[in-house]
Amino acid sequence: MARIWTWWSSGEETLTPFLQLCLKSWRVKHPEWQVVVLDSANLWQYLTADDLPSTFTQIQRASLQSDLVRLAILAKYGGCYVDMSSLATQPTAEMAWARIGEGACLVGFRAPHFIPDFVSAWFLAAPQQEPIVVEWSKMFNHVMEGRVDDRDIHHHSFFEGVDLSDYLRYGALAPKPGQAASLWVEYLVVNVVLKAVLDKDPSLKQRFWSSSCLVLESDPNLSPTLWSESQVHLIPEDVAFPENEKLKMQNLLKQDPDFATRLMDLPMVKFFNSGSPYAHLSSEELLASPSVLGCLIRKALGYLVDASQSPAQWPQLPALKDLPNWPTSSTSSSPFAWTSQGRWTRPEDLAARDLWPGASPRRRARAPHTSRWFRSRWNPSCATCWKLRAGR
């Protein structure tokens, strides 16, 4: 049975309702696939210590851990890896796997409008022991060995002779305080390693560009190996890209049938920041909402046909407990609760919920969030957030 892999370090039971629905969409659209949620507890059932850097468990940034895991798991088992904050509106993994069956060595999305030859890592499909992925994982582990973060990683000897000017220009490797480009530092190191791997091995580079199936994010009509219409990458409200104004995540909470219809025709939608702008909404609220986001979720779970219908015209939605493989209670199954002050916390911590607004500037600076988001949200999969909550 083919497998879809994803990662959430604290476990599936700690997912917010929005992320639970994202995960459910992959199971609904791929009933013949096994969807595996990897976490810090079950990871070693699939991987060994040799598959990851020796300092893996000491890495605090969840996105860096997930990058290491996605390559190691695809190299060893093959299949499709998706970020947890991805909503499947079509059987995307099956479409990608069909290309693998036709001989593609890798399926993913390109973003040449951002950086030439850039390949996003939030959706990847590859066969077991694919040489490109094996080498990619091996060298990523190599440059991360003995490290617990990726700051200044471009000074590693592995990158000698590799042109990283595009990444340096965007601040992906050497961010300067106060520059918006520094936002990308947490996401691009895995891509830098791939570029170095391909530049150093001409045979792998030739295989990559001749046999991989890379869909353009910006203009799918330009892709010679198009397998489906390009996805839409939804950006958070505080990242300013005027050309993508309508794709900001808060806009999905508005009603816009035309926009909803266009998005529902795409194979998947990727959200930034683990969907944090929607973390305060329950599963029931998300499913029943007439907003663009509600339309997308209902389409992903197989309910909605026409986004222009009024709520009174919607087909009767089944209770969440009646959905296949759904927890008995979508809210009580999580050890987190949504407080009146707008953040996720464990029930036993509710009495101490004033801890976050009163945190010192020094402690805020240690969190992997902007100051505004730190005051109103926290990421239960982030080790730094947990340490700050514990007062360390």
Topology:
Blueprint (H helix, E strand, L loop, with lengths): L2 E5 L9 H13 L4 E5 L23 H16 L1 E4 L3 E3 L3 H10 L5 E4 L12 E4 L4 H14 L20 H5 L19 H12 L1 H10 L1 E4 L15 E3 L22 H8 L3 E4 L11 H6 L3 H9 L36 E2 L5 E2 L15 H6 L4 H6 L6 H7 L3
Parallel strand pairs: 1-2, 1-3, 5-7, 8-9
Antiparallel strand pairs: 3-6, 4-9, 10-11
Describe this structure in words.
The chain is of the alpha/beta class and 392 residues long. The protein has a domain at 3-221: Spore Coat Polysaccharide Biosynthesis Protein SpsA, Chain A, CATH 3.90.550. Helix content is 31%, strand content 10%. It is built from 13 helices and eleven strands. The strands form four sheets. A four-stranded mixed β-sheet has the order 2-1-3-6, sandwiched between helices. Strand 1 (3-7), helix 1 (17-29) and strand 2 (34-38) form a beta-alpha-beta unit. 41% of the residues are buried. Mean pLDDT is 73; it is low at 174-186, 218-231, 237-243, 318-378 and 386-392. One of its GO terms (cellular component) is membrane.
CATH topology of the domain at 3-221: Spore Coat Polysaccharide Biosynthesis Protein SpsA, Chain A
Radius of gyration: 21 Å
How much strand content do the residues show? 5-15%
Put simply, the count of helices is: 13
Name the CATH class of the domain at 3-221: Alpha Beta
Approximate helicity band? 25-40%
Distance between the termini: 44 Å
What kind of sheet is the major sheet? 4 strands, mixed
Q: What oligomeric state is this?
A: single chain
Mean pLDDT equals 73
Quick one: overall form?
Answer: globular
